[in-house]
Amino acid sequence: MKEKWYFIDSGASSPSFNMALDEAMLEWHSEGKIPPVVRFYGWNPATLSIGYFQKAEKEINMEAVRRLGLGFVRRPTGGRGVLHDNELTYSVIVSEGHPKMPASVTEAYRVISEGILHGFRNLGLDANFSIPKTEEEKDSLKNPRSSNCFDAPSWYELVVEGRKVAGSAQTRQKGVILQHGSILLDLDEEKLFSLFRYPNERVKERMMASFKKKAVTINEVSKKPVSLAEAKSAFKNGFETGLGIELVPYDLSEEQRLQVEKLALDVYENDEWNFRR
């Protein structure tokens, strides 16, 4: 018998609701109220999310964020800035002590990401894990030069044809792992690069050029266009295969939804949280 995990497809929601639901699921799982969960979601409006440790005022061009009508939110996870637009966003909630989860953060990351790896393969893409080989590559992971998440493959990042196709981040609280990330279908690079601050225009252009070499979207490498519905189906199946589980659809109760909405309002819509660094 395969272990049953919950599957939540919460559709496109506000940035604050999205982050609050991930945090609430971590809480519920730590209290034993729900089993492990895989969740798919989207963003309305398209949103720039920043990592827990990023300095918003220093690194982000908030004027551009507002001008483009984008949402803005700080994640509870680390990592760098991500533009959530034409993508499938996923999150996984599972106990650190789960028999499938290795104790090491990077190894647990690899196990969870097996689901994504199988998703890409279901779409006919030749995806693999990139593992930094040289000391220089390892150093660049510790000291990222850019505010933008897709700029450098990190440990066990997923790559297709040598370029990064999914960016993920992880946090561990209350004995529970929350890993969430972006699976890019398409990307407007001009829009993305207008959202960060640079010392000058030349640096910005150099970063854009290097980004094009390092990152790629599903629809750039797929032989035929992939819709969001096709991506959902491929990655849902991918998680079941990769983690050896059965995903059971689950809808939030009214009480759970109210709890998430309160957390969204109290924390993730609060400037004190979003601009705290």
TrEMBL record:
Enzymatic reactions: octanoyl-[ACP] + L-lysyl-[protein] = N(6)-octanoyl-L-lysyl-[protein] + holo-[ACP] + H(+)
Site entry (Lowers pKa of active site Cys), positions: K164
GO biological process: lipoate biosynthetic process; protein lipoylation
Stored InterPro entries: aa-tRNA-synth_II/BPL/LPL (IPR045864), BPL_LPL_catalytic (IPR004143), LipM (IPR024898), Octanoyltrans_LipM/LipL (IPR050664)
Domain BPL/LPL catalytic: 32-247
Pathway assigned to this chain's UniProt record: Protein modification; protein lipoylation via endogenous pathway; protein N(6)-(lipoyl)lysine from octanoyl-[acyl-carrier-protein]
Domain of life: Bacteria
Record-annotated active site: C149 (acyl-thioester intermediate)
GO MF annotations in UniProt: lipoyl(octanoyl) transferase activity
Classification via CDD domains: LplA
Lipid metabolism listed as a keyword: no
Entry keywords, A to Z: Acyltransferase, Transferase
EC number in record: 2.3.1.181
One Pfam family per UniProt: LplA-B_cat
Keyword hit for Disulfide bond: no
Subunit and partners: Monomer.
Record-stated family: Belongs to the octanoyltransferase LipM family.
Further details from the record: In the reaction, the free carboxyl group of octanoic acid is attached via an amide linkage to the epsilon-amino group of a specific lysine residue of lipoyl domains of lipoate-dependent enzymes. The reaction proceeds via an octanoyl-thioester enzyme intermediate.
Function comment: Catalyzes the transfer of endogenously produced octanoic acid from octanoyl-acyl-carrier-protein onto the lipoyl domain of GcvH, an intermediate carrier during protein lipoylation.
Name this protein carries in UniProt: Octanoyltransferase LipM
Native source organism of the sequence: Neobacillus piezotolerans
Gene name of the record: lipM
